[in-house]
């Protein structure tokens, strides 16, 4: 089949990396439509995609996103059912609009019905998974909650069953990192079915705009403050790290179940900023000496690429997908999960050796140029689609 014959429909419950993918598909004149649970009012800054190709089905997802503001997020059973219905209704909605030969690229959890419909019409179904295999994810998060003696309800069994059915049904599964690819292989998914296409970074937005202050050592964390992100390991590492003027800046929402644990630590030198617009992040990356992400599990955290693009060295775990972005000891450091002492050691090394930190910063900028931005991500997708 010629690539010119492709008509591609995307499905994504939220934004994630899928609107970057949509822009790239549009660049190659391949995008037919992108369906999302996001309301159009929140997509006004998504340039590069013709508005007529963006189809919003926000009726379940939008109130789910707003449940905290209307005080409906305190019941776990409601959150679980709401999330399930948001994905299910979007999947059914898209399936009704798939009426001819197409290739459907659907974020996992929202593509089973529509993907099978595309296949029945002679097309292809690609399941795009942004995190580790869902069963692997459920198991490792259960381990982490047990580690901290925190109740864990687990991922909705309906979601696990649906995602595994998607993995089985899809022609291909696309993943962003080697860590995620290996999690699928461990779960006995054929390696030939799993294709790795790593994310890019917005190089037009993320670049150095200032420098860290020489009279302090600033550490940055960006992400949800949660057990999944390994935040308590960072907090322990920060407490053990010795520096006369150390600071930890935390950007992101704080999960309620981790707050009692945070309160056990000394946090006088920790600043919790909360969520901020993405466009404000370059200043924080540029003013930080190091970015730390000790995640227990995820796909490929885009914040790491953003930090590198601003010349900020990265300390992260393999389970954050970091090995697809940097080489250990060259642009930053790769540390094992659940080992705060390893983070402390790297922080101490960077603070004691400012020349090394500067070298890693320069290497980070070079590395990002080698990796390329989202255009490189699009080029990988185009190359992959040509193999059909």
UniProtKB/TrEMBL annotation:
Query: SUPFAM superfamilies this protein is in?
Result: UDP-Glycosyltransferase/glycogen phosphorylase
Query: Glycosyl transferase family domain spans which residues?
Result: 207-366
GO molecular-function annotation terms?
glycosyltransferase activity
Which top-rank group of organisms is this from? Bacteria
Residues of the signal sequence? none
Listed Pfam families: Glycos_transf_1
Alphabetic keyword roster: Transferase
UniProt cross-references to PANTHER family, sorted A to Z: GLYCOSYLTRANSFERASE
- What protein is this chain from? Glycosyl transferase, group 1 family protein
Q: Which organism is it from?
A: Acaryochloris marina (strain MBIC 11017)
């Amino acid at each position: 089949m010629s690539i010119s014959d492709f008509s591609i429909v995307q499905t994504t419950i939220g934004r994630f990396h899928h609107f970057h993918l949509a822009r790239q598909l549009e660049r190659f004149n391949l995008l037919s439509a992108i369906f999302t649970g996001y309301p159009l009012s929140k997509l006004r800054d998504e340039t590069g995609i013709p508005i007529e190709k963006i189809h919003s089905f926000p009726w379940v997802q939008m109130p789910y996103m707003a449940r905290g503001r209307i005080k409906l997020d305190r019941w776990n059973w409601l959150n679980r059912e709401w999330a399930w219905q948001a994905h299910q209704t979007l999947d059914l909605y898209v399936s009704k609009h798939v009426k001819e030969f197409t290739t459907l690229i659907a974020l996992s959890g929202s593509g089973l019905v529509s993907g099978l419909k595309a296949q029945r019409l002679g097309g292809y179904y690609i399941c795009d998974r942004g995190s580790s295999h869902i069963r692997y994810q459920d198991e490792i998060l259960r381990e982490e909650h047990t580690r901290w003696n925190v109740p864990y309800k687990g991922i909705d069994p309906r979601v696990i069953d649906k995602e595994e059915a998607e993995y089985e049904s899809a022609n291909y599964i696309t993943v962003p990192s080697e860590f995620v690819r290996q999690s699928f292989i461990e779960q006995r998914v054929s390696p030939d079915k799993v294709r790795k296409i790593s994310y890019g970074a917005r190089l037009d937005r993320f670049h150095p705009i200032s420098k860290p202050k020489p009279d302090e050592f600033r550490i940055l964390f960006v992400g949800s403050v949660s057990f999944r992100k390994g935040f308590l390991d960072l907090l322990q590492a920060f407490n053990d790290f010795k520096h006369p003027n150390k600071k930890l800046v935390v950007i992101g929402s704080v999960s309620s179940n981790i707050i009692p644990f945070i309160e056990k630590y000394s946090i006088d030198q920790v600043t919790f900023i909360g969520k901020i617009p993405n466009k404000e992040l370059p200043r924080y990356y540029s003013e930080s000496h190091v970015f730390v992400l000790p995640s227990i599990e995820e796909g490929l955290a885009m914040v790491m690429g953003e930090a590198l693009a601003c010349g900020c060295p990265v300390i992260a775990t393999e389970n954050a997908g970091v090995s697809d972005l940097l080489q250990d000891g060259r642009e930053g450091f790769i540390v094992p999960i659940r080992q705060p002492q390893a983070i402390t050691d790297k922080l101490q090394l960077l603070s004691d050796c400012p020349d090394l930190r500067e070298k890693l910063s320069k290497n980070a900028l070079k590395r990002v140029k080698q990796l390329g931005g989202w255009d490189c991500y699009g080029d990988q997708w185009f190359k992959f689609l040509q193999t059909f």
